[in-house]
Amino acid sequence: MKEIITYLEMKARSHLNPSAPVPGLVLEFLDRDSPVVVDLQARIGAPYGWESASRTPEEWSVWFAEHPDRTFWLLSYEREPAGMLAYDLHPGDEVEIETFGLLPEFGGKGLGGFALTLGVERAWQLTPLVKRVWLHTSSLDHPHALPNYHRRGFRTVRTEESERGRGEPS
What we know:
Elements: E1 3-10, E2 25-30, H1 35-45, H2 57-66, E3 71-77, E4 80-90, E5 94-102, H3 112-125, E6 132-138, H4 145-152, E7 155-162
Parallel strand pairs: 5-6
Antiparallel strand pairs: 1-6, 1-7, 2-3, 3-4, 4-5
Helix pairs in contact: 3-4
């Protein structure tokens, strides 16, 4: 299946165009050892063919070992797990939003814009001198993903075409 990967960036915190707040939607640190991390990654990614939706426990062990510095954050809506973000810090004071998504049952409720706002605000706070926040998305992801990134102030820096189905961002 053909897909287009779009890479986006935000080079200044002031470029964030925040969404209107959604009462009851919060972003909280999630311990990487919590079983919720695996559950959320699998459930968020299942509709989009992410590899996380079908990893075995052994594959998860290897995956966690390969990503020792990744941090995870839980999106909760009215105290219920609604989605998650994961971040990687890169040399040059760059933060990559490696995973962003809502659980399927929370889609279509108007949460995505504010969820991304919370995630981008957190990204700018992860280190004292962040110079760039970036991410990538696929044409196989939720159809509102790319427009939401653009509305929040990300700009496209490049695209790539692939003939294979999307695995989850590693």
